[in-house]
């Protein structure tokens, strides 16, 4: 997409007046793409247990902060919202309890309410709350635009926002690098991951006018039981044998896996994509 047609904005969406100023009458069609918000670090200290006001309400208000002003611009005909799979898969089913269910993007989950076990559960609840707010807004206001929701798995790959070595372990990429550096993590990680470049591609493909709007899609490679986190050290040993042989890096950590079953047949058919598997995801990050 030519840069003259692509504009980036970082408004503070909890403040309505911060939304990018757009004239109400524009001759060409416009699309908005809203990328996912990361989970904040050291949340317990920051919010002092007030998860609702720190996560749930901002997620809902931030979503409405996009939809409401956009509804006043007739030229906007599609909004792509990047969310997470936990918007339609409850946190308890996704992480602590192996349900044995194969999850699809046709699934709905009710909004989880307090008390919350941890910040990750409330973060998941904020995503389902934002999705419900989106669906309610479209139903009640019948705007000129439609919405495509992309529900991501854990995103792995090169993180161009990391420019300082001290931040290299941030995000789920840390579960990859941790094993390479010898970290032994006894806690389970869900087996659902997706390549960052595939997500970028999906955001563009979601703008296709031939794609029917007001749909949600789960983004995850077609792997029956997902990835096995322990494969990371084997992938690194295979692709960087000399460095591993010298002990640079030690490559002797481990990360346990919670198997998660996800049906991605619909997104593959509708978007015509084939997601990259674990090896490509890991190499992208390690090479960076």
Describe the structure.
The protein is of the alpha/beta class and 288 residues long. It is 35% helix and 17% strand. The protein is built from 10 helices and 10 strands. Helix 2 (51-70) packs parallel to helix 4 (119-141) and helix 7 (231-239) packs across helix 10 (278-287). The radius of gyration is 20 Å and the shape is globular.
How is the secondary structure organized here?
Layout: E1 30-34, H1 43-47, H2 51-70, E2 76-84, H3 91-94, E3 102-103, H4 119-141, E4 146-152, E5 154-156, H5 173-180, E6 184-190, E7 193-195, H6 196-205, E8 215-219, H7 231-239, H8 241-245, E9 254-258, E10 261-262, H9 265-271, H10 278-287
Parallel strand pairs: 1-2, 2-4, 3-10, 4-8, 5-7, 6-9
Per DSSP, what share of the residues sits in E-state strands of 2 or more residues? 15-25%
The pLDDT mean sits at 85
- Which bin fits the share of residues in helices? 25-40%
Largest sheet, strands/sense/barrel: 4 strands, parallel
Structural class: alpha/beta
Put simply, the count of helices is: 10
Cα end-to-end separation: 24 Å
Number of strands: 10
Overall geometry: globular
From the alpha carbons, calculate the radius of gyration and give it in angstroms. 20 Å
């Amino acid at each position: 997409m030519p840069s003259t047609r692509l504009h980036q904005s970082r408004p503070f969406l909890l403040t309505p007046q911060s939304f990018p100023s757009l004239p109400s009458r524009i001759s060409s069609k416009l699309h908005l793409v809203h990328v996912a918000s990361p989970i904040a670090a050291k949340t317990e200290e920051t919010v002092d247990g007030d998860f609702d006001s720190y996560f749930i309400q901002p997620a809902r208000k931030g979503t409405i902060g996009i939809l409401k002003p956009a509804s006043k611009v007739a030229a906007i005909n599609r909004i792509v919202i990047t969310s997470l799979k936990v918007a339609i898969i409850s946190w308890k089913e996704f992480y602590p309890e192996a349900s044995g269910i194969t999850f699809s993007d046709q699934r709905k989950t009710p909004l989880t309410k307090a008390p919350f076990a941890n910040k990750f559960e409330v973060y998941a609840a904020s995503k389902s709350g934002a999705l419900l707010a989106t669906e309610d807004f479209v139903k009640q206001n019948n705007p000129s635009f439609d919405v495509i929701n992309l529900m991501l798995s854990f995103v792995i790959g090169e993180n161009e926002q990391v420019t300082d070595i001290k931040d290299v372990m941030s995000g789920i990429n840390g579960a990859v690098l941790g094993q390479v550096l010898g970290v032994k993590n006894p806690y389970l990680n869900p087996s659902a991951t997706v390549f960052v470049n595939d997500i970028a591609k999906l955001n563009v493909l979601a703008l296709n006018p031939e794609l029917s709007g007001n749909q949600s899609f789960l983004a995850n490679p077609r792997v029956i039981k997902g990835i096995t986190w322990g494969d990371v050290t084997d992938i690194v040993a295979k692709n960087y044998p000399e460095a591993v042989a010298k002990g640079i890096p030690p490559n002797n950590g481990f990360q346990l896996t919670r198997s998660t079953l996800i049906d991605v047949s619909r997104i593959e058919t509708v978007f015509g994509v084939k997601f990259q598997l674990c090896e490509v995801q890991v190499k992208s990050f390690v090479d960076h």
